[in-house]
Each structure stands twice: as C-alpha cells, then as structure tokens.
Amino acid sequence: MVKISSSEITPEEVYLDRRKFMKGLGAIAAVGLISPSSVLPKNFSGGEELTSFKSITHYNNFYEFSTDKEEVAELSEALTTSPWAVEVTGLVEKPGKFSVDDLKSRYTQEERIYRLRCVEGWSMVIPWTGFPVASLLKDVQPTPKAKFVKMTTLMRPSEMKGQKSWWYEWPYVEGLRLDEAMNNLTLFATGLYGKDLPNQNGAPIRLVVPWKYGFKSIKSIVKIELVEEMPTSLWMKAAPSEYGFYSNVNPEVPHPRWSQKTERRIGEFRRRRTLMFNGYEEEVSSLYTGMDLKKLF
Ligand SMILES: Nc1nc2c(c(=O)[nH]1)N[C@H]1C(S)=C(S)[C@@H](COP(=O)(O)O)O[C@H]1N2
Ligand SMILES: [Mo]
After folding, report:
1. Domain contains 19
2. Whose CA is nearest to atom 6 of ligand 1?
3. Looking at the domain assignment, is residue 268 inside a domain?
C-alpha cells in the first residue's frame, strides 16, 4: 500500500473525504437511526462542483491588504485574529460585545455551500461554515425603529497596509435592510472547507449574502449596528454612480462599464450565464416585491 504523507493531502481532499463519510451517516439517517439534518451540509449550490481550496484562498478581493488578488493571501498573514470581539450596538434591547469563540459555541455551526458572484464578472462555489445572521439578531432584539444593519470591518493600518491608501474611506462598511439580514440564506461565516476561516477570506468572522454581488459580503467584522437610516457603504462613497446599496445580482442590469449577463466560474474555461439573484430567486425575490429591480443597483 502506498503511504501518503499528510502534507500531500489538500484540505479539499480531507473535506471531501469527510463529506463522503457524512453521506454514509446520511444513509444511516435515512433508515431512521439519526436525524439527517444533523449530518448533511445544506447545499444551496444546486449540486455544482466546489471551487478548489487553492483558488478560494489565493484569488481574493480584500482591499485592506492589496488590490492585487494574488497578493492578498500572503499579506493577510499579518492580521492578528485572536482575541477578536464583535460589538453589537445601536437600536437593540440587548447590546453587547461577543467574542468569536462565544459566538461559535452559542450558535450551531452549519455547513452551507453557496455560489459567490463578484461584480467584476467571476464566480466560485464555496463550502462555508457559519451560523445565520438571524440567530444573533433575534438574541439582541432589534427595537421597532431598527430598519437597517450596518457592519464595519476592523480598522488596523499597522496590520492592514492597504488602509494607508487614500483612495478609499476606511474602514470598510456595508449594510443590509433588516429583513434581508433576517433571511435564512444570510450567514456569518467562521470557516470554509471545514477549517477555520483563512485570514484572506475575512477571518475570524465575515458576512455571506449569496444573492448579492460579492462586495456586500463584508470581511473581518468588528461592529454590527442596528440603525434607522440606510447606511452608506465604502463602495457607495467611492463610486456612487457604479455601486448602490442593494446590489442584487441581476444579469439584466449592466454595470456602467461592463455587462453582467455572463460570468467566469473560476476553474472553468467558458463563461456561463449569470442567474437572477445569483440563482436564489425562490428564496429572496419576495423581499423585493413592488420594487423596481432595474433601479436596485
Ligand atoms: N472588508 C472587506 N470585505 C470585502 C472586500 C474587501 O475588500 N474588504 N471585498 C469584497 C469583494 S469585492 C468580494 S468579491 C468578496 C471576496 O471574498 P473572498 O475573497 O472570500 O472570495 O469579499 C468582499 N468583502
Ligand atoms: Mo467583488
């Protein structure tokens, strides 16, 4: 028998092996011995092939480190992610500061496979680990006045060299309408491929909103604020004619400088068609009834 040293096994292989194992458990669950939901990761990608761990962790947009996607992995090693606290504040009955360890033990960590569509026209399929944003929001109890959730990335130019650039108004800010944040798909990710979240992907905790362009999924969050008015994101300030608050994936609404009809799945050669709401129409379209979808961007 050929021995494989553990250093030759990629995280991807370990993960896929574990999933095979869990599928086995799923079969046992089907005969009623254990509950299937406790062992099978939820797949919201339509069974599409996962993007490789290598691509997910070496082709990154994280402007706090660099605007060069291939440089982010190495530069982000400088980030200290422990200890890390997330402050929840604003229009809530129960504000508080939560350590990431606390959040991870308080809320069951689920696996969710989502497509990620960047506004630049590329996409990936990523197996996240995390918990619904709704779980945390329910616990802090938003007051009736709260209409939006504003989220902020860490500000630490000593470790995030990109924050020395004057092009952007740091720190990175993003936001959702409260009902968007409460949607079942909206996730706080704390890991991917069954491992802790790599720094370049937004360690130790980042937002994932799979029906919106990737820039809405803010990384390395330190503050969550419930507010009455629509927050202004970093991208709305940087280029108001190009980036709006909603930014739902919509193949019919071109970016001012390029079409959004197609995308390149990382690892594939031919472009594929971009789907309305990135393929999550069934889950989220009711959030926007009565709104002009062409204007959302
Ligand atoms: N704080 C912060 N969050 C961010 C970004 C960023 O530059 N800074 N880039 C966004 C963009 S444009 C995309 S496409 C995704 C990329 O996530 P990934 O590197 O995990 O694939 O993160 C988003 N979140
Ligand atoms: Mo992006």
Report:
1. no
2. 62
3. yes
247-294 residue pLDDT tens: 999 999 999 999 999 999 999 999 999 999 999 999 999 999 999 988
Atom of ligand 1 nearest to the CA of 118: 14
Paired residues of 98 in beta bridges:
86
pLDDT in tens, 88-114: 999 999 999 999 999 999 999 999 999
CATH of the domain at 127: 3.90.420.10
Mutate to test the pocket of ligand 1, among 199, 217, 260, 264 (most ligand atoms within 8 A of CB): 217
Atom of ligand 1 nearest to the CA of 60: 19
Q: pTM of the predicted model, to two decimals?
A: 0.92
Phi, psi dihedral angles at 251 (to 5 degrees)? -65, -20
> What is the residue range of 52's domain?
37-288
Q: Identify the residues whose C-beta falls under 6 Å from ligand 1.
A: 60-64, 116, 118, 153, 172, 201-202, 214-215, 217-220
d(CA 4, CA 9): 7
Residue 3 has pLDDT above 70, yes or no: no
Atom of ligand 1 nearest to the CA of 192: 20
29 lies in some domain: no
**Which ligand is nearest the CA of 62, by number?**
1
- In this structure, is residue 240 part of a structural domain? yes
Calpha distance 126→192 (Å, rounded): 7
SS3 content of the chain, % helix, strand, coil (to 5): 30, 25, 45
Domain count, the chain: 1
Sorted by sequence, the CB contacts under 8 Å of residue 220 that are 6+ apart come out as 64, 79, 81, 153, 154, 202, 203, 204, 205, 206
Write down the mean pLDDT value for the chain: 91
Task: Kindly give the distance from the C-alpha atom of residue 1 to the centroid of ligand 2, in angstroms, as a whole number.
Answer: 45
Distance 10 CA to ligand 2 centre (A): 26
CA–centroid distance, 287 to ligand 1, in Å, is 24
Q: Which atom of ligand 1 is nearest to the CA of 126?
A: 21
